Amino acid sequence: MTTSTEQGTEPEAESGELAGHSVYRDPEILDQLERRARIAARNSPCGVADLRTGTIQLDKAEQDEESAVAEGGVFEQLDEAPVGDERDGWNLREIIPATFTDLGAWRQRRAVWANASLFHLTRSPVYLWRGVSIAALGARVGTRDAWSHLFATEFGEIADKVRRANAGPEHIADLRADRRKEGKQRRREPVTVYALTGCTSYVAALIALGQTWGLVLAVPALIPLFGLLYALGHRELVRRAPDGAFAFLDQVQPMGSDAPVTDERITRALRDIRLITAEQEIRAVGLGTRDELENTTIEFKLPAGVVCKALRGKAEQFAGALGLPLERIDLLQGETPNDVVLWVSAIVPFSGPAPVSLLVEADRWSIWDGVPFGSTRKSTRKTLQLLWSSMLFGGAQGYGKTSAMRLPAAAGVLDPQCRILLADFKGGADWEELEGIAHRAIIGADPAAVDEFIDLVDELIEEMDARFAKIRKMPKAQRPDMRLTPAMAEAHGMPVLMFLIDEIQEAFGVLLARKEGLKEFAAVVEKLARLIRRGRACGLIIVAAAQRPSAKSVPTDFRDVILKRYSVHTVDDTSSDMILGDGTAKRGHTAAGLGVIGVGILAEESGAEKLQTDLITPQQFERICIRGRALRVEAGTLTGYAASGLLSVSGILAQIRKAFEESGAAELGSSDIARLLHRQDPAAGWEPREGESDKAWSSRVGARLGREIEEALDGTGKTLDRVKVTTLAGAEGRGFRRSDVTFVLGA
């Protein structure tokens, strides 16, 4: 057999002879033979991993001078990697049990220990009396047993039995003699002598300690004696009740409603509501944990035959047995039907003030990022994505319905690429600030306003059809799912449309009162339903509100196509279902009797839950609208109704705006503006007159500013009044705010 190499073909036998001959022990020849052996191993079927040569055959050719003929390529391991310390691969997190590294588990442990310590501390007088009683029993029993042993009293009992059996007196005399003999022998035993000596020494030491140092140090010295007597008493109690369990410490009971929830407390509660028997108990799965807000989560397994569904059916009784309101607990099923995950809130949910919305301080927002809406009772944030589903708000007056509706409105206002359409059939002042933003604004529920609303619905249907026509003409790479995207909206001039409709039942009522109202009403409802069903894919959001949308006032054909609904307090389950959907109350979610302002039920495609909405006050909403108008003016997206109110910025108004731009301040006093106006036009007479005091000059220029601003705004219906501000010098004075100037000018 021959082996092919770079140099040609040589018989293996020849190589072996050369290798064995002493003349070929030259180092260079041996190196050459080693190289040939490497090449032979690489090209052999077994050359994938050869321990002698340290070679690995690879899939891709990586040839060098010595392995050019190897078709698969070779990687040579010339040097072995040094063997490191085994400890280099250790991972302490894998060694230490997770229960010792879980911060939530340690929070729960601390709470349990603190509760147990407080409970036992309050029971300490009982424990002290119990210990003294047991020690007294031990003293009595110990004295009795020692006397019986030292004086052999058992012989007396035998003698009494012999006397009752009418035996002869000689037997009784023998027993008495044996008793004296046995007692004398026992009293002479070394153990007895040592014990008596120890007791005598202990008593003498106590007396000496008391006389020398006082009773203060003598009392601690009694602790060993007390411990011995307690042990004797405890042994006697166990002897008297061998089948009973004796415990010195009482079982820990929860100290108030804020006490930690443990498996023992859950077991007692389940027994109280008779879901399990006195012999049954739960089995905790892992350790209970506490989050940063002190909310507790504990998972446990119910006894066989008891399922989570049965416990959830008795949730209210279970919460009462735990000493908690129902709002503070949540029951979820685990992996199996008898696995339960119990969540307990540290406080009554929604008992605190509503959190301020993120939109209040946001400079701008993108409606594509959703609407920050509120917090669940587990303190998790809830963000609504309204681009693909419209929303209906409902509930009684005075419970925060309009305040909740401001949240999606504010998100749309702060997005300059979102076009706001407003239909306020209430006709009040709730949406007054939005009129400076809205592309269309319909105020009131008079017949003319309702007709304008119908025309707007028709216009939106035309806009929807036109958008879908544009989307169909786009390449499929740009419209992967036939939905509007931010890139499509910007490139093709299709901004998101948010249609806000407040108290929609008022418009429907006007329609139904007409001669042909029923037919017209049905047509409008069908058009709105079509907009909701199809418009969401092309960027149309409808946000409507109604107090009690019954089948007559707000038909189900309109309500059923709205996927997201929010209801504040209602008077009954029927009213709640009219807003949230039929059967929602039966599934355990009802707005009936909520009675808390700002708290409601949110129903979505995935289910319903109670939450507390974020807060935007009317004053904050006004400032948001001012920012939103400025954003649209800057972006060139202020159109329609809002754009019709733009002022021609010239004269004193243009000069004041320029003064704010030069200073970069948010507030300017009248004197600050006068100095900046003088810098713009030195001949305009804004500088102090000769001999004029600062106070007189400030008063004069303030009056002049007010007069010229009033003249500039004459006929516009707008005003710009002087208010208390902080001047550039840091003092308080009268002047103007930049936000007010921006709002008045619309720029």
Automatic annotation (TrEMBL):
Which residues, by range, are in coiled-coil regions?
A: none
Q: Domain of life of the organism in this record?
A: Bacteria
Tell me which PROSITE patterns the record gives: FTSK (PS50901)
Entry keyword annotation includes Glycosyltransferase? no
Chain positions recorded as ATP binding sites: 395-402
Q: Where are the transmembrane segments?
A: 191-209
Q: Which residues form the FtsK domain?
A: 368-577
Q: Where is this region: Disordered?
A: 1-26
Q: Which InterPro entries match?
A: FtsK_dom, P-loop_NTPase
What organism is listed for this UniProt entry?
Streptacidiphilus cavernicola
**Record keyword Nucleotide-binding present:** yes
Protein's name in the database:
FtsK domain-containing protein
